[in-house]
């Protein structure tokens, strides 16, 4: 999550809020840094202040939108005049929050943007996770991809649920062991590799891959569009 604001205290609060929401913050304090960071870290979304010390927030927004038309952008500004909001939205902002604002509102709006962009699991209800054409029901323990049922073992199901609960995030073998097996016993890394390989065969066989290995780091599940 790229956070662009030149107020250190506010940036820190936003970073804490997005971290607690399950996203990794990338805070920067000016427009040029924001453009470089957007190219380098490929953020899921951008929280962009409308007034920056170098480039105007609208200028940054237009450049971000030119380079990545689908990148969700939430504008923040202390200016609450209607024309400013219209200017931001017409320049490509997906949503607009006026300072002062509640952190809870920012997180809720970001979740909405990410869901519409397919960057976060959609919840049809509290027990259903959806990412692209992949659907997991925790209540019925059923998994479908593109409407086709997929049979998983109990641990494969738990592993997939963990990955879907953290879309695009790279989870280490240690994190997976802790959440799926509640342990970190010797040889656990090999166990994770075996289960990820088995899950990948069932989820991705004959289809565009969603489960990815980040060599030396861990595993992540991503919408198919990310790999195109």
TrEMBL record:
Per the record, the domain of life is Bacteria
| CDD domains reported for this sequence | trans_reg_C (cd00383)
Q: Which residues carry this modification: 4-aspartylphosphate?
A: 49
**Keywords in alphabetical order:** DNA-binding, Phosphoprotein
Q: Which residues bind DNA?
A: 126-223
- Which Gene3D superfamilies does the UniProt record give? 3.40.50.2300, 6.10.250.690, Winged helix-like DNA-binding domain superfamily/Winged helix DNA-binding domain (1.10.10.10)
Species this chain originates from: Streptomyces mirabilis
**OmpR/PhoB-type domain segment(s):** 126-223
**Residue limits of the Response regulatory domain?**
1-114
Q: What is a single Pfam family found in this protein's UniProt entry? A: Trans_reg_C
Q: Does the keyword Phosphoprotein apply?
A: yes
Among SUPFAM superfamilies, the record links this protein to: CheY-like
Protein name as catalogued: Response regulator transcription factor
């Amino acid at each position: 999550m790229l956070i662009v604001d030149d107020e250190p205290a506010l940036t820190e609060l936003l970073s804490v809020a997005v971290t607690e929401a399950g996203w990794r913050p990338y805070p920067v304090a000016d427009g040029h840094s924001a453009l470089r960071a957007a190219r380098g870290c490929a953020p899921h979304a951008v929280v962009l202040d409308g007034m920056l010390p170098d480039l105007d927030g609208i200028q940054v927004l237009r450049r971000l939108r030119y380079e990545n038309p689908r990148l969700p952008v939430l504008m923040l500004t202390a200016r609450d005049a209607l024309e400013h909001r219209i200017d931001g939205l017409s320049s490509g902002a997906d949503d607009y929050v006026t300072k002062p604002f509640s952190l809870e509102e920012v997180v809720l709006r970001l979740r909405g943007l990410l869901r519409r962009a397919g960057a976060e699991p959609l919840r049809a209800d509290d027990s259903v996770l959806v990412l692209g054409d992949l659907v997991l029901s925790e209540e019925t323990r059923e998994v479908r991809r593109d409407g086709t049922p997929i049979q998983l073992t109990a641990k494969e199901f738990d592993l997939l649920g963990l990955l879907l609960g953290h879309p695009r995030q790279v989870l280490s073998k240690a994190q997976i062991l802790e959440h799926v097996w509640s342990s970190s016993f010797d040889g656990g890394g090999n166990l994770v590799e075996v289960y990820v390989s088995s899950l990948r065969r069932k989820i991705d066989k004959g289809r565009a891959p969603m489960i990815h290995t980040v060599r030396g780091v861990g595993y992540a599940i991503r919408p198919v569009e990310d790999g195109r």
